[in-house]
Amino acid sequence: MRVRLLSLLVLWTWFQYSDAFASSFSVATEARAQSENALQQGRETLEASAHAYQHVAALRDVFTYTVTTPSAVLAPKTLEITLGSHNEVALKDPLIEVFAVDSSLFVTKSDAPGKYVVHPYTGDFAKALDAVVGEQGWPLEPLQIAMRLGKGMDGWLTALRFKQLAPLQISGYEKKSDHGLSFDEVHFRADNGWLDADFDSTTHFLSRVSLEAHPPGAPKDVFIKVLGECAPEVLGSTKDLITFDTSGKVAVADLTRLNATQLPTGKLSPSFELENLEGKKVSLRQFKGSVLVLDFWASWCAPCWKTLQESQHLSDWASHSGLPIAVLPIDTMEQFPTKEETRTKATEFFRSQGLTMSSLLDLKSETFQAFGSPGLPSIVIIAADGTIFKYHQGSFPAMLETLEEEVKEAAKVAAQK
C-alpha cells in the first residue's frame, strides 16, 4: 500500500511540474537558437562587407577616432585608408605614410623627410608592414585593407583587434537605425575588452567602431576607450591613385634610421629635475658620465604598455652589464586632478605590470615639451656627455636588441673620449 501511495505521489508531482520543466527547456532552446542566429548574422555581415570592399573599383576612407582614458578625452586623430588597383593600398596618419605598390612596401615619416624604408610586398599588407614597424608597432592593417586583399575571418578579426585587444570572438548582432540610416552592428568580445562594429546596411562598408581595452593584470580603472567613424568615398578610377616617387629620397635599412629632425643627434639634452614615485627628486645632472635612457609614457597610451616592458628588460640587462647605463621612464601628459593621484595611479600601474623601475613624474608635461613633445611612447638615449645619442618614437622590430646595441655604442664612445 505504501509503495502504491508513493508511486501515486511521484506521478502527481511529475504532472504538476512537467509543464514548468517543459517551459524552461523551451525557453533555453529558443535562447540558444537566437544566439546561434545572431552569430550567423554577424558572420554574414562581415562576409557582405568583405564582398563590398573587394568589388569596389577604388575607395578612400578617413577613419576619425577619439581615445578616452580614465582621466581625459584626447584630441581626435585620423587614419586615411586608400584602396587602389589589385593589391595596391595605402595608409596615412599624421606621422607615418605607407604605400604598397607593385612588389614593394614603402614607409615614410613626416618628421624624417627625404628618407624611406622599403620592404618586399607580395599582397600580405599586415605581414610586410609588421616587418617594418614591428608586430606591436603603429600603424596596423585596418579591416578595410584586410578585406580588400581577400583575407578570411581570422584576418578580419585580427585587424579589428587594433593591436590592443586579445583574440576576438563574435558575441552578438543587432539591427540598428540612426537618422534614417540602417546599420548592422556586430558585437565582439575579448579576454581584455570588447568591440562593436557598425556596417552600413546599404553599402556594407564599415561605419563606426567602439572598443574598450585593458592591459593584462592592470587595475580595473586603467583602460582606453576608442570611438571612431569612417567616411568612405568610392572613387571611379585607380589611375595614379597610389604611387611612390623615390626621386630625391634615400632608402634606409629600417625604421630606426628614419631619424626625427625634432631631436637631432649631437644636440645638448634639455635639463630636467623631476620627482620619482617615492617623492625623491631626480635630475639629469646626477647621471653625468653615464648613458641615460628615457622612456616617455602615459597610462592612457596603449602602445606605452608594451614599450615599458621592453624598457624593464633593458633596465634588467643594464644592471648586470657592468656599464654606466640607467633607464628612467617618465610619466607625462596625464590629466589626473592632483599630484598624489597621478603618483598613486602610476605606482598601481607599475605594480600591476611587474615593473620594478622607478618612474619619474612629469606632472606639468614641461620636460616632455622641452624635448619637443616627441610623441608617445618615445625613447631618448642621452650620451654620457649630455647630448642626444638616439631617439625613437613608438615600438619597432627587435626593440630590446636594438636598444642594447645602441646604449653599448654610446658607452663605448664615452669611454674613448
What layout of secondary structure does this protein have?
Layout: H1 2-55, E1 58-68, E2 77-83, E3 89-92, E4 96-101, E5 104-109, E6 115-120, H2 125-133, H3 143-148, H4 153-160, E7 169-178, E8 181-190, E9 193-200, E10 206-213, E11 224-230, E12 233-235, E13 250-251, E14 273-276, E15 281-283, E16 291-297, H5 302-319, E17 325-331, H6 339-352, E18 360-361, H7 366-370, E19 378-382, E20 388-393, H8 399-416
Parallel strand pairs: 6-13, 16-17, 17-18
Antiparallel strand pairs: 1-2, 1-11, 1-12, 2-3, 3-4, 4-5, 5-6, 7-8, 8-9, 9-10, 10-11, 14-15, 14-18, 16-19, 19-20
Helix pairs in contact: 5-8
Structure description:
The chain has 417 residues and is of the alpha+beta class. The protein has 8 helices and 20 strands. The protein has helices at 2-55, 125-133, 143-148, 153-160, 302-319, 339-352, 366-370, 399-416; strands spanning 58-68, 77-83, 89-92, 96-101, 104-109, 115-120, 169-178, 181-190, 193-200, 206-213, 224-230, 233-235, 250-251, 273-276, 281-283, 291-297, 325-331, 360-361, 378-382, 388-393. The strands form 2 sheets. Strands 1, 2, 3, 4, 5, 6, 7, 8, 9, 10, 11, 12 and 13 form a 13-stranded mixed sheet that branches. Helix 5 (302-319) packs across helix 8 (399-416). The N and C termini lie far apart (109 Å). 35% of the residues are buried.
